[in-house]
Structures are given as structure tokens and as C-alpha cells.
Model the fold of this input.
Amino acid sequence: MLPDPDVLIADNVFGHPAGQLCAIHLRGDRISAVDRLATGDVPVLLQGPGTVLDLRGRLLLPGLIDSHVHAIASGMFMLGENLQEVRKLDELEAAIRRTAKAGERVVRLGGLDLSRLDGTEHALLDRAWLDGVVSERPLIIKSVEGHSSWFNTLGWEMVIDERIMVEEGLTRSEVAEMYDRGRLHGGAYEKHTTPLYDSYSHAERRAGMLRVLDTARRMGLTGIHCLEGYGEFRREDFQLILDLDGQGCDLTLYCRDSTPKIAHELGVPRLGGCWCVDGAIGSHSAAITEPYADRPGHCGELYFDDAELAAWISSGIALDMQVCVHAIGDRALEQTIRIYEELAGNTDIAASRHRVDHFILGDESQAERAAQLGLCSSMQPAFDARWGGESGGYATRLGSARALETNPVGTMHRCGLRIGGSSDSYITPLDPLGGMQAAMNHHNPRHRVDFDTAVRMFSCDGAWLGHSEAERGSIATGQAASFSVVRGDRSLADAAISATIHRGKVVYSAESESGPS
Done:
């Protein structure tokens, strides 16, 4: 591991012209000064007192922040086998059988992406096929978009509560179709997340979180916004995040709950996270105006009526909390923005920086209205990289024209909406460099951003979303001494993390693991 520095010397520092020599002086966990240097100053510093890290030839960024992460769920995902690149049913079967060999009471896998799976085999993936692979134990496979899962018969019987299906207004034929397909989705799925999460022990959750933190360090992340609160053990999960905060990464907790009670008792001024106004495009549950291209007549679901959603938002506002919701489809965005417009007469929306995360099918008018209210968003450029374009997963669901308008980070930014960059991990991996590259190279040139904007999304704007911009997110005097050291240039092509420094401590060094980088 590299030694903890007192001074950093770099010639490609974010916020300064490429080639400008700078010395960044650290005192404890803070930046004490940022000085411009002449070439002749470098030998003097290198020979002077203190530990000097010579980072010339590297790109020095502020410590990067991922502003929308399901951290505990990501840890659960990391404990199992990753199905995100599975393309054939025989590959899926092999992965299931490998996992089943571990002998756990429940066979659990995650990340299955139908847009990657051979389309000719979709119809074969059903409950009967899953029973043919594992019949003696519950089998649960979570989808990559996180808003549906597949079950064998025992998995279905373990998880599904028929009362919820009735409450959701599903007909017998609709329930029977889901049962036969072995796939639960939509609002009924969201209300079944408790048994899915609670099949993991507290020890497993903590072990998974330690993997998340290790991955974060390796990917240059010094800050994560943790959107937690699934299952019956919400208080324990919230406390786990609070306990791990600062251990190589700053963790900002958002408490997803039906009431702000626990968050308020814990002193956490943030309610929600993925409090879902709608579902996801991949599971046909995002609420959209025009029907899905591959499911005529179906426009997804709004999970709350106006009164229910307004009451929940107001419960957080009443306690001066920042409120965060998940809204993907244009109908979900419209409902959310309209409710905030109605509430704006009685409260200062802008001061709280309430978040409407994802904004995947937001248009310019919605972005402008949200910005005028002072709302903000965490968006996921990697979604476009994975599912965007004229022939990707979004095109299958929405058609090519609409697919090119998804995740419009550049356009939303230019409309004045403050945006933090994120992965929505486990949906896409913790990879801020990949996220920045995706934002700079959106499939639709109209929605691209430049390098400076991409970095700000994953640094100072992410900090701003969490009300922490005064202490982190920038390379400036008084800020936390957190940095992401990158091997590569400002195009970010083939860029990789060389080192991560969190509050003055080197918490990751590629050089120490694999020789000189």
C-alpha cells in the first residue's frame, strides 16, 4: 500500500488545466492548501519534509461519490453468483446447479437480464423449468432491474402471500399466469420484498456490506448514498450503515420506510430512497403514457394514488427531512412533480433538495418544472450503456425512437435539473468511471455531457444531493482529503483506478496489489 501522504504533486488535476502542476497539501483528513507549481518547485517538495506522493502522469479527481446504491442488497448480490451476462438457459442451469451445491436452505441467485438472454428461450423459462433444475428446495432468482423475480414451486410457496395478490387487485387468471411463468412483478412484487430480504441473516448482511466497501475502494469511491429499508429488519440495517460509515468510505443513509419514525429516532434527516412511485421498464411496470412496444395496451403501474403519495411525502417534510422517491416512467414523474407543485405553497421545497431519482423517461418540460421547484435527481448513465440505443433492451420494450430518449442526463442537466451520478448498484456495478464514460458517450448525442459535467455528477453534485458539499466533493482548501487517482486521460477511454485516498488515508492502491501501475 502507498504511504499516507502529506502532499500530492499532480499535473492533471480536476478543476485545473491539464498540464498545470499543482501541490495539494493535507493536514489530517483535510486539504490545507492547493498551490500551483513551476517545474523547478517539484524537486524541492520531493526532498522536503513529509510524505510526498508524485502523481504526475495520473488524473487526479475528487473522491468519487455514487449517489444511489442499494448497499445491503448489493452485498447480498455479491455473496452469490452474478447472472448479468447469462445468455442461454444452459448457462443459467449451470449457475443454478453450482449455487445449489452449497447446500443452503434457499437457493438464491441474482441479476438475470432478459435483454441478454436468448429471445428464443424466453418462453421456456418458467416455473416448471425451474422445478426441473431444483425441486427439493426453494429457488429464487432476482432480475437485474430489481423489480421482479423468478421462483420454482417451493420458492413461490415460501414467499407469495395470496392476501397481497388480492389487495393488489389481481384477478385469478393474472395470478395463475404469474404462477405458471414463475415470475412475480409489478406492485405485487414490491410488497413481497420482505421475505426475499429476510432470507439473509444479519451476519450475511454485514459480510456482504464489507464486500461492498472493498469494491467501492477499488473503484475509486469515497462516498456512497445508501438507500436501505427492505424487510422486517430495517432498524438493524439502518444501524449497520451508520456503524460502517467512515470505514474507508463516507456512507449517507436514506431510510426507506412507510413512516419517518425510525429515521427520526436515529437522527437521520432523510426519508425514502427507492420509495417506488412505479416499477421498471424491464418488467413492464414503469408507468408510461404510451403503451409498451412489446406489450400493446399496457402502460405499467402507478403504485400510489395522489393522496397516498402526497401523504407519505408530507410525513417527511413535516419533520424537515429530505425525501427521495423512485420515478422512472413519464407518468410517475408527472404524478410526483405535480404533487410537489401542490405542496410548494406551504413549504420550501428547494431548501430540502427533495430527490426524484432515475428520471429515465423524463422530458424537458418535466425537468424544467422540477428544477424550478428545487427538486433534484440521481441518474444512472450506465443504464444507457447497458440497455440503450436503437437495438438494446429498452428498444425491445419501448421501440427504437423512445429508447434513444431514455436516461437523458445531458438534456436534464441543461434544463437546470441538478443531477448526481450513480449506478443503482446492484442493478449495474459500482463503477463511477464507467458511469462518467457512459454519460459522455450516450447513445443519443443530444443527451451527452462533457468531461467536467460527468466528473461533477459523480463528485460535487453527488455531495450536494446529500447536503454535504461544504465538506466533500471538490479539490479545494478545507474539503475532505479524499481523492480518486486515475490511470488515463480526460477522455476516460481505458481509464482505471490507480489509488483511492479517503480523508488522507490511502485505502486502495493498484500498485500494491499488482506491481507498478
About this structure: Residues 45 and 130 are 64 Å apart (CA to CA). The two ends are 12 Å apart (CA to CA).
